[in-house]
Amino acid sequence: MIKNRPQCPLCAGQMRRNGTTTKGTTRWRCKDPNCGVSTTRNRTDSTNAHYFQAFHS
Predict the structure, then answer these.
(1) DSSP characters for 3-39?
(2) Residues spanned by the domain of 45
(3) Number of domains observed in the structure of the chain
(4) What is the pLDDT of residues 8-57, one digit of tens each?
(5) Residue 29 maps to a domain
(6) Which of 21, 27, 30, 31 has the fewest C-beta atoms lying within 10 Å of its C-beta?
(7) Is residue 9 part of a domain?
(8) What values do phi and psi take at 19, rounded to 5?
(9) Is residue 1 a part of any domain in this protein?
């Protein structure tokens, strides 16, 4: 089963959910206890769609 989980940008390990930010986006933390990097994912496709619609109109 494929899961929609990002890879750690530092060690390429699996990440797990670690709550949310004040904006409401999911915060992710690396499972490796030696790494522990915390990140959030951004949707470049929705950002690009917004920019394209603004350009088009």
Answers:
(1) ---PBPTTT--BEEEEEE-TTSPEEEEES-TTT--EE
(2) 15-56
(3) 1
(4) 999 989 999 999 999 999 999 999 989 989 999 877 777 788 888 889 88
(5) yes
(6) 21
(7) no
(8) 85, -165
(9) no
